[in-house]
Amino acid sequence: MRGRDRRHRSPARIHRVNLRFDDDEFDAVSDAATAAGLTTAGYCAETALATARGHQRAGDSTLVLRALAKELFGARAAVNRVGSNVNQVAAAFHGTGLVPEYAQAAIELCLRTVERLDSVVAELRRRLG
Questions:
Q1: How buried is residue 101: exposed, middle or buried, by Cβ count under 10 Å (0-12/13-18/19+)?
Q2: Distance (Å, whole) CA 60 – CA 65
Q3: Which domain of life does the UniProt lineage start with (predicted)?
Q4: pLDDT at 127 exceeding the cut of 50
Q5: pLDDT tens column, 78-95
């Protein structure tokens, strides 16, 4: 059994909306509701209202920030790989005087890593205002 927030509005809400989900969709919504500490119906109502009013729920922004942090950690690991590749290219160049064949791949990895970091940072800036 999942822990749920069972606080109710007073006076009660009088309008009802029935939603239909397939199994995967319901699992995703149910998991998000649990993470936010709400019932599935409560989560749907609160999220719909927040979206309609142009606001974002605090629990949702926490989940988004966690996902962005995970992306940053992944980008950090990619930067470390780029650094290793650059060192290998430099060592090969200093040893032979020739640019190794894999230098282009290292450059492309560097460019993709910078693009990834730029997109994560832009999303963080957007989310944080």
A1: exposed
A2: 9
A3: Bacteria
A4: yes
A5: 888 888 888 988 999 999
